[in-house]
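Predict both folds.
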Amino acid sequence: MTNTSKPVIGVSRCLLGDAVRYDGAAKPCRIVIEQLGQQFELVAVCPEVEAGLPVPRPPVQLTGPAGRPRMTGRDDPQLDVTESLQAFCERRIPQLAGLSGFVFKSRSPSCALGSAPLYVDGKCVSPELDGLFAAALRRRYPQLPVIDECGLEQPAMRAAFIRAVQGGER
C-alpha cells in the first residue's frame, strides 16, 4: 500500500478531522491523530464519500432485516444508497489487502462495529449491527484487527488493538 516501514491501518476519514460526515462535520479522534498517527501509517477511508455521496448529504440509516439491511434515508425512506455502498465495497476492499488493522467510526451506518442502529417501520429494533462497509471488510478479512473510536478510549482495548496490529495477537 505504501513504502513505509510502519504498519498500515485504515481509519474512518472523519476520525482524522476531515469534514466528510453527512452534516459536513468531522469527528476528530485525538487518540487516532496523536497516538496511532505516530505509530502507524494511516489510510483514510470514507465509504459514503468514496461511493459518490455528497457532503453535506441527507442522513442515512440501516433499515430492514438484520441479515440484509439497506442503507436508506432517515428523513426520506425512498432514498436508498445500498447499491452505491455495495459497489464501493466491491471496488475498494480488495485495495485494502495490505492493511494491518482498521479504526472505524461508531454508530455509522457504513462504519459501525456492532453499534449501528437498525430501524424497521421507524422504530429502532437493534442498536448492535455492523455498518455495511465494516461488515464487508470483516467478511473479506476476518483476521484483520479492528476497533472503533469508543474502543480506543478503553486503555486495555487500545493496547490489545495495537499489539494485534503489530503482529502480536493475530
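Second protein follows, with its predicted C-alpha cells after the sequence.
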Amino acid sequence: MYNTINEKVSNAFYRDAPLSVGNTTITKFEGRILFILYGHTIAVKDIEYGTLTLDTCGYPTRTTISRLNLIDGVNVYTRKGKLYLNGKEWDGEKVKLAIK
C-alpha cells in the first residue's frame, strides 16, 4: 500500500492533478501546484517561472524527506545528523530550484 500511495502522490504532482490521500494533498492554487504534508506546504511547482520551491517547514522527518524524494531531481537525505539536498548541506528552509 505504501508504494501505491507514493505512486499516486508522485503522479498527481506531475500531472498537476488534485489529490488527497492520507496525510498528503496535491492541489492547485493561483497557477501553482502545492505539495502539502500534514497541512504544511513542502513543495511548490510554479510552471510559469520554471521553479520548484522546497521547504521542510521545520520538520525534517523521515516522512517529509520521503515525500520530497518523490519529486524528480530532488534527493534529500541525512548524514551524521545533517540534512542534505542534492548533495549539498541544507538547513531545510525554503529553497528554489529550476524545474528540469
